[in-house]
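Recall from the previous lesson that a structure prediction takes nothing but the amino acid sequence as input. Here we apply that procedure to Fumarylacetoacetate hydrolase family protein from Jiella mangrovi. The sequence below is the only information supplied.
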Amino acid sequence: MSYVFTPAPVPALAVRGTDATFPVRRVYCVGRNYADHAIEMGHDPDREPPFFFQKNPDNLTTESTFPYPGRTSDVHHEIELVVCLGNGGADIAAENALDHVFGYAVGLDMTRRDLQSVAKKMGRPWEIGKAFEKSAPVSAVVPAAKIGHPAEGAIWLKVNGEIRQEGDLNQMIWKTAEAISYLSGLFTLSAGDVIMTGTPAGVGPVERGDSLQGHIDGVGDLTVTVS
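The prediction returns the following tokens.
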């Protein structure tokens, strides 16, 4: 097979402690998956069915700088547990869902909040606010074989040394296994799929020059500078 032009490289994440990389196929994001964040965004935190939006695979970046994007004046940080699937399927049972996980990482769902807010008011998709270039800085992936499947533990984000977001993985409304199971009823999942599992309360704006330090117990750390 010949291509009319050279295909873009496959987006990939580093795997901690190895020279291997994790190739990214699709990126799914769980919306409003912490009750306190749902409240701060003006929604009822009751356990309604989960909803998902997507970023593009090449939105993920392992670079230590986040370039402030254009056409916005209100970019927000959202610290998240990132789930990386090693195999997939359709209609995966929740009790078997964690068997499909290769590993976990720390990620940021950077959001052009002003553009997202306009899209919400007009009933339009969110991609303009969510799926822009380098909008998802991600740490190296740590294999589940090394750390198990984190279900509790601190998740926090500091901006210039001050805590902005703070929560616990056990506060997720839809746990990792449940999110995988539900999502697999909507899409056929596959190895290389990435799920960003939502963010705790405290989201807020960043400015050029800010230093963002994220942490999830048992998973790792992520440091990004806004440029």
